[in-house]
Design a protein that fits this description.
The protein contains five helices and no strands. By secondary structure, it is mainly α. It has a domain of 89 residues. Helix 1 packs across helix 2.
């Protein structure tokens, strides 16, 4: 009599997408104390044990392949200058939210910026520049 052997299912299982960086939970979404995108970047760098500059450099490399249009690039300025545009309402904030969302597989990072108020805020007066304010005081 022939023995019945166990059959194996050899179909390749669906593998869920993998995040390049930890998908940290943003702090305070839905509250007045929500963190900014720059704060999220700092926490992400700390979670990975790298300087924030190294993290933003890696995100810039990711942006080269992940932004929808090859003509779009994210800001290449140093982190301290980047903080002004990342939390705001400009195209730079949109790009950083997109690139960080792709790298962390998070879809709620737009809440860490002022993008929801894009139609109501003027980006020119959104963030003060102390050096420009001092120059205007001096005449």
């Amino acid at each position: 009599m022939a023995a019945i052997l166990e059959s194996w299912d050899l179909t390749v299982p669906d593998v869920p997408p993998r995040a390049r960086f930890y998908p940290l939970e943003p702090i305070g979404i839905g509250t007045p104390l929500v963190e900014g995108l720059t704060s999220y970047l700092l926490r992400l760098a700390e979670a990975h044990g790298v300087p924030v500059g190294a993290l933003t450099d890696e995100l810039r490399r990711c942006a080269a392949t992940s932004l929808p249009s090859s003509g779009l690039k994210i800001c290449t300025c140093p982190y301290r200058l980047l903080a002004y545009s990342v939390n705001g309402v400009e195209e730079s904030a949109v790009k950083w939210v997109y690139v960080l969302g792709e790298a962390t597989l998070r879809e709620d990072l737009n809440h860490l910026t002022l993008l929801a108020f894009q139609d109501f805020l003027c980006s020119l007066s959104l963030f003060g520049n102390k050096s420009l304010d001092k120059q205007s005081e001096l005449g």
